[in-house]
């Protein structure tokens, strides 16, 4: 795995309140215990200049994260969902030894806050007990799966567990009664945007006990992430970068030209399989409540 030396840093806060209501993931706070990510996904939006993260292969561990989290949750008057996994994977390989995410979940359970974990890693099953405990308030685990083909996944997400391992982990969690599903995104135009790809993911998600599949039939390529993506994709799929440049020009939202057909197939399949295309969220109104947005 080609990553730089891991550094320890201190941070002033660990929970970042969202400025506006999140009607997609259902979270109110972002929690990033690490800076950077080891999975090396070629399409990662965190490389975008607008985030100011820089080279995401430089990993930093926020050594005072758990102390801050315990303090910050103790000062919150109302409960709202904490999300983790938007800027990096909370279960990247380093988590196996650092156990920051596991420790954070223990603190979240102590304070009875709801949580939504987004990951590509089967390591999340290590924390099934505490997730089950948090689930008495609200816990959701979304597995990002962009392809059901393990060989393709290794090309797009070289340091992440295989898609088949993610489906196995999903089954373990769903069998424990933990609310889980798939973030089917990004779907890369001209690469993994066939009807067969989408049908296979949905069917395997159903077999693994997924309650929902959240689709995005495209990819975001902004300044900072676009050049990296073009460089990597050209090495894996010769002439593909030129195809993107010709078709999408400088657009940051690159939606698959197959999107209308993929949507039609997707919604037909999830209806047949009894899977939702939206999540149930936590709402605090003096009591726990799950509601479709």
TrEMBL record:
Keywords: Iron, Iron-sulfur, Metal-binding
Keyword Metal-binding recorded: yes
GO molecular function: catalytic activity; iron-sulfur cluster binding; metal ion binding
Coiled coil: none
InterPro entries: Elp3/MiaA/NifB-like_rSAM (IPR006638), MJ0683-like (IPR040086), rSAM (IPR007197), rSAM_sf (IPR058240)
Ranges for domain Radical SAM core: 23-258
Name of this protein: Radical SAM core domain-containing protein
The organism of origin for this protein: Phocaeicola vulgatus CL09T03C04
């Amino acid at each position: 795995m080609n990553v730089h030396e891991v550094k320890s840093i201190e941070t002033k806060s660990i929970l970042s309140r969202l400025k506006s209501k999140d009607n997609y993931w259902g979270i109110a706070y972002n929690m990033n215990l690490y800076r950077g990510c080891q999975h090396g996904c070629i399409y990662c939006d965190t490389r975008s200049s607008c985030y100011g993260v820089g080279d995401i292969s430089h990993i930093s561990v926020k050594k005072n994260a758990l102390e801050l989290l315990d303090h910050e949750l103790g000062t919150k008057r109302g409960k709202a969902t904490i999300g983790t996994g938007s800027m990096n994977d909370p279960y990247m390989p380093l988590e196996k030894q650092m156990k920051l995410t596991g420790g954070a979940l223990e603190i979240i359970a102590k304070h009875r806050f709801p949580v939504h974990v987004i990951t590509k890693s089967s390591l999340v099953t290590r924390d099934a007990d505490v997730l089950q405990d948090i689930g008495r308030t609200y816990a959701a685990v979304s597995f990002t799966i962009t392809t059901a083909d393990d060989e393709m996944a290794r090309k797009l997400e070289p340091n992440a567990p295989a898609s088949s391992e993610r489906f196995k982990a999903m089954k373990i969690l769903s069998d424990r009664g933990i609310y889980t599903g798939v973030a089917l995104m990004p779907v890369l135009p001209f690469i993994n945007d066939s009807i067969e790809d989408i049908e296979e993911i949905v069917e395997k998600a159903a077999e693994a006990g997924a309650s929902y599949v959240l689709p995005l039939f495209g990819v975001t390529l902004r300044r900072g992430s676009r050049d990296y993506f073009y460089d990597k994709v050209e090495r894996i799929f010769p002439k593909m970068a030129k195809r993107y440049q010709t078709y999408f020009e400088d657009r940051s939202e690159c939606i698959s030209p197959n999107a209308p057909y993929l949507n039609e197939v997707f919604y037909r399949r999830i209806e047949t399989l009894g899977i939702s295309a939206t999540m149930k969220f936590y709402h605090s109104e003096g009591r726990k409540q799950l509601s479709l947005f």
